[in-house]
Here is the input.
Amino acid sequence: MNDIKKPEFIWPVRVYYEDTDVAGVVYYANYLKFYERGRTEWLRSLGYDQDLLIEQGLAFAVAHIDARYFAPARFNEKLLVKTTIVKSRKASVVFHQQIVSDDAEQKLLNEATIKVACVDVNTMIPTSMPDYLVEEIASDWC
Here is the structure.
C-alpha cells in the first residue's frame, strides 16, 4: 500500500483573552472558530474569497462535525491550525483539521473532521460548487 501524504494547509492563530474562560483556558466552542479561520484562509490561499462566492449566491455551511479534545490551549499561546481534505464531492468537502501548539513539539490539542456543504444562500439548499473550485480541489488537494 502506498502511503501518500496529502497536502496540508497551516494557518497560525494566537489565543486572545476573549477566547478563554476565567481560568485562561480556551472555551471549547472557540476551537470551532479557529477551524473556521483555517478553512477560510485555505480557500483564500487558492485565490477565492468567500465574499466572491456569496456574490455568486453560494456559501459554505457546516453540515457535520466530530471533534476530540486532548489538551487545553491557554491565553496568549500561539497555535497552528492544520487543514487537509479527506473527501470532496460536487456539493461538499470533508476536512480533517488539527490544532497544535506552535512550537518544536507541535503538541496535538484538538482535532476534528468537518463536513461543509455548498449551499444556495437564498434557499440554504445544497448545490454544486462551481466547476473551477471542484477542479482546483481535485487537482491539488485530493
User: Anything to note?
Assistant: The chain has a mean pLDDT of 93. The radius of gyration is 16 Å. The CA atoms of residues 98 and 111 lie 4 Å apart.
